[in-house]
Design a protein that fits this description.
Layout (H helix, E strand, L loop, with lengths): L1 E5 L20 E2 L2 E2 H11 L4 E6 L3 H8 L2 E2 L2 E7 L5 H10 L6 E6 L2 E3 L3 H11 L3 E8 L7 E5 L2 E6 L7 E11 L14 H13 L2 E5 L3 E3 L3 H20 L2
Parallel strand pairs: 1-4, 1-7, 4-6, 9-13
Antiparallel strand pairs: 2-3, 5-6, 7-12, 8-14, 9-12, 10-11
Helix pairs in contact: 3-5
Length: about 240
């Protein structure tokens, strides 16, 4: 199995806490956040990872090199920012298998990614999306499902509990991208939302811990919550 990790973001909201590093390299305890993600992939049985890099990419490439913790690593380099959509499309073109797991380099989801890949294969859809429940979806927006498929999205702002997009996808290697997207585009806003009716992504429910470190308060939370969880996972190996 192989995965794509988006690690090219500018991290402007974390600039005051994490200087001269991309978000994915933000320290969590004694390790970069990206290391936690890569170890999670290795435990789930993934063998190859394409890391999409751009801003301050040398810090990632020099730290991890071409192999880490049993994973083969390669890099999709964004010479100019491509957005989440352009970054995914470029990295997916470098995939070697029929489907690839796609993760954000600033989000942790305590999911069984091997089970998610099996679910994707059985669903026989061009795309699978991980969804998770939150007590208040106002910050994220909601996900609408029917019959195990994602059918639509609710805009950010509505308070209350519900399902959200957990930021983890499995995409078919031959995924069809609509004409006219351009090189730089948002995966969520420019591709996923307009195409959701045609894609009808399979909805993979995840009930584990979810955290986006893209804002300072959640990055602070990661210093204890993720470090503890990572140590528990490692001790259980």
């Amino acid at each position: 199995m192989e995965a794509i990790v988006l690690a090219g973001g500018l991290g402007t909201r974390l600039a005051a806490r994490v200087k001269d590093l991309p978000k994915a390299m933000a320290p969590v305890g004694q390790r970069p956040f990206l290391e936690i993600i890569l170890r999670q992939l290795q435990r789930s049985g993934y063998a190859r990872v394409v890391i999409s890099v751009g801003h301050l990419r040398e810090s990632i490439i020099n730290y991890f090199g071409t192999a880490f913790d049993g994973l083969s690593l390669t890099y999709a380099v964004e010479e100019a920012p491509l957005g989440t959509g352009g970054g995914i499309r470029k990295a997916l073109s470098m995939a070697e298998e029929d489907a690839a797991l796609v993760l954000n380099g600033d989000t942790f989801l305590d999911a069984d990614y091997a089970a998610m890949m099996r679910f994707h294969t059985q669903a026989a859809r061009p795309m699978t999306m991980a969804i998770t429940q939150q007590e208040n979806i106002a910050r994220y927006g909601g996900v609408l499902t029917c019959g195990g498929l994602v059918t639509g999205f609710e805009e950010k702002g509505r308070s209350g509990p519900g399902w959200i997009n957990a930021g983890a996808y499995i995409l078919a290697g031959n995924l069809v991208w609509p004409a006219g997207l351009g090189e730089k585009f948002s995966f969520e806003m420019d591709f996923l939302a307009p195409q959701v009716a045609n894609l009808a992504p399979a909805a993979f429910e995840v009930h584990g811990f979810f955290l986006d470190i893209g804002v300072p308060e959640d990055y602070d939370c990661a210093q204890t919550a993720l470090e503890k969880l990572a140590d528990q996972k490692q001790a259980g190996e």
